[in-house]
């Protein structure tokens, strides 16, 4: 039996975390898992929701925050419109006005796009490095996967064209080549589970060959349903490399069935070596 390594940061392991030398493919969510260029998006969405949420008896700041984060992070990994649809339902349940989910989505997206454009310009101008906006330790892990001959894949709910554009800005494209999958913008035509199944078929692998890293319940649930091993990346949306797990993410991702939880990739190489039996 391979001994557990000594970790440099916080790592939470579940009993299901065990060596899997048959792992051959590693699937990554993009935003919040690899890319930090959209960091702070939950706060932008939270602010927009909070301004429109009618009060209800018994509300406290903490209970309202937990309610809204349950929507925002609970549906993370699915098309953004679904978060807007659920929020509009909550507003109606509280006796508020009927809100147009698409209007909410556009308002949120406009604010987020302005942040993304500003960060991309920092990189293009040389005032920031690509790794300032790559989740801490991720590039080292991707280089390790190359050396080991493992196949990395991106699977994101963000529009595919945007994922490819942002991966290029962050100089991550060479690690993935054509294996970058994104959303369509239409929730009726996008399912992470369906794309995971397509990946297994196209790559001619079984679930036991699959390792996933993600910061949303959708990819954790899909990985576990297919028999893969899932690591929750509970990334800090405010301070890249802080080494602190975002507690709300942690709770939701472990509940979704993650086999391990980490704040970033500082210990990912040690975890991978353990899984591969090195």
**Strand order in the sheet with the most strands:** 1-7-6-5-2-3-4
Secondary-structure-based class equals alpha/beta
Tell me the name of the CATH class of the largest domain. Alpha Beta
* CATH fold name of the largest domain: Rossmann fold
| Percent in helix | 40-55%
Task: Quickly give the CATH architecture of the largest domain.
Answer: 3-Layer(aba) Sandwich
Total count of helical runs of at least 4 residues: 11
Order of helices and strands: EEHHHHHEHHEHEHEHEH
Integer count of domains: 2
* Average pLDDT over all residues: 95
User: Over the alpha carbons, how many angstroms does the gyration radius reach?
Assistant: 19 Å
Biggest beta sheet attributes: 7 strands, mixed
**Number of extended strands:** 7
According to CATH, the homologous superfamily of the largest domain is: HAD superfamily/HAD-like
């Amino acid at each position: 039996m391979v001994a557990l390594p000594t970790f440099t940061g916080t790592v939470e392991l579940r009993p299901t975390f065990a060596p899997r030398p048959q792992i051959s493919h590693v699937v990554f969510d993009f935003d919040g898992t690899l890319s930090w260029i959209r960091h702070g998006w939950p706060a932008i969405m939270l602010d927009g929701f909070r301004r429109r949420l009618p009060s209800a008896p018994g509300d406290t700041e903490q209970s309202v925050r937990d309610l809204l984060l349950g929507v925002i992070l609970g549906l993370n990994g699915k098309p953004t419109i679904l978060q807007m649809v659920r929020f509009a339902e909550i507003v109606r349940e509280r006796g508020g006005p009927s809100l147009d989910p698409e209007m909410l989505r556009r308002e949120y997206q406009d604010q987020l796009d302005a942040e993304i454009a500003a960060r991309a310009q920092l990189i293009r101008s040389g005032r920031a490095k690509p790794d300032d906006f790559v989740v801490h330790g991720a590039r080292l892990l991707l280089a390790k996967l190359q050396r080991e001959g493992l196949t990395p894949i991106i699977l994101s709910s963000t529009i595919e064209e945007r994922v490819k554009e942002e991966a290029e800005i962050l100089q991550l494209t060479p690690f993935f080549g054509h294996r970058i999958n994104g959303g369509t913008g239409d929730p009726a035509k996008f399912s992470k589970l369906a794309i995971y199944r397509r990946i297994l078929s196209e790559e001619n692998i079984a679930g036991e060959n699959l390792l996933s890293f993600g910061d949303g319940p959708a990819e954790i649930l899909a990985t576990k349903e297919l028999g893969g091993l899932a690591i929750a990346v509970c990334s800090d949306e405010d301070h890249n490399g802080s080494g602190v797990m975002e507690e709300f993410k942690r709770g939701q991702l472990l509940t979704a069935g993650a086999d391990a939880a980490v704040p970033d990739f500082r210990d990912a190489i040690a975890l991978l070596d353990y899984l591969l039996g090195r």
